[in-house]
Design a protein that fits this description.
Layout lengths: L3 E5 L3 E6 L4 E7 L20 E2 L10 E4 L2 E4 L12 E5 L3 E7 L2 H4 L6 E10 L2 E10 L5 E3 L1 E3 L2 E3 L10 E5 L10 E2 L2 E2 L12 E3 L10 E3 L6 E6 L4 E7 L3 E5 L6 E8 L18 E3 L4 E11 L1
Antiparallel strand pairs: 1-2, 2-3, 4-12, 5-6, 7-8, 8-9, 9-10, 10-24, 11-23, 12-22, 13-22, 14-17, 14-19, 15-16, 18-21, 19-20, 20-24, 21-22
């Protein structure tokens, strides 16, 4: 049975499950809910942590130094029970350490720590990966939070994503869950994208480079969510077509390329940690009126 931890500030409260260290709710003090509720009619996820891969592997198999292992989309962390390692009124840290079960599909000793903390109206979600093995460890790490679309009280309003850097990053698409080699014209104009359901008929919109370190997802003339990203160079937007949510996904790592090998070390934008090294990845989100 999974445990639920609630943390709060005077303006924000969240709940986090030990299953996947996954956020279950995000609520402001005015009673508004911002996070998708995991309705199974659409998608049971709410804010999964993606590790040790982001996206799919060819035939759902990865390879490490030529040895093949079964690995489902986005890795195993999101379906693993984490241990509550620290808790206060405004923060909690869950940990997932390597085990016999994880080593059967990913042959490394590691520690994955996920910390949620709130201050005022701002939530910070940070993941730290430690290589406890005796050899270099390749992996991908990503966040997959889903937020309401329309946002609270914004039914009927156009919704937009606006990049802090004003960029027009090229678009990458998926083919059977794998990254194509094509770079398509940007759907952004001077950093601004007006969202439409049909944009997701070809699966996620992925921006491998150029989306910058922050964006705002908002209803025109209404509420919004302001994001910043730390050590997360890839950004994806995803919706199950017609569903009442939008995923804003910052990653460090992507799905394997079409026609590529299964080696984890060859996946785009992955990280390789030497023995004893750690890497931190984080995003913040702040609701606005």
């Amino acid at each position: 049975m999974s445990d639920i931890v609630r943390i709060a500030s005077d303006q924000l409260s969240i709940e986090v499950s030990s299953l996947g260290a996954e956020m279950q709710s995000l609520r402001t003090s005015d009673g508004r809910d911002w996070l998708w509720n995991g309705d199974g009619a659409w998608w049971t996820g709410r804010s999964p942590i993606l590790f040790p891969i982001v996206g799919k592997a060819p035939d759902n198999r990865i390879a490490v130094d030529g040895t093949s292992y079964e690995m489902g989309q986005h890795g195993f962390a999101r379906r693993s029970e984490f241990v509550l390692a620290a808790e206060s009124l405004s923060s909690c840290r869950f940990e997932l350490a390597s085990s016999d079960a994880t080593r059967r599909v990913y042959p490394f000793d590691f520690l994955l720590s996920v910390t949620h903390s709130v201050e005022g109206r701002r939530l910070t979600v940070a993941a730290e990966v430690e290589n406890r093995d005796t050899r270099a460890m390749p992996f991908g790490l990503g966040f997959h939070p889903a937020f309401l679309w329309p946002l609270p009280g914004a039914g009927g309003a156009a919704h937009t994503v606006t990049l802090d850097n004003g960029g027009e990053p090229l678009l990458t698409r998926l083919e059977d869950g794998l990254v194509t080699g094509d770079r398509l014209a940007s759907p952004f104009s001077k950093g601004r994208l007006i969202l439409a359901n049909e944009m997701f008929e070809a699966d996620a919109m992925i921006f491998a480079e150029g989306a910058g370190n922050g964006l705002t997802y908002a209803a025109e003339g209404g509420p919004g969510l302001e994001f910043t990203f730390d050590n997360l160079p890839n950004v994806a937007l995803w919706q199950k077509v017609g569903a009442p949510f939008l995923c804003v996904e910052p990653w460090h790592g992507m799905a394997a390329k079409v026609g590529s090998f299964a080696e984890v070390a060859e996946r785009p934008y992955g990280t390789v940690l030497e023995p004893g090294e750690k890497a931190r990845f984080a995003f913040t989100v702040e609701p606005s009126a």
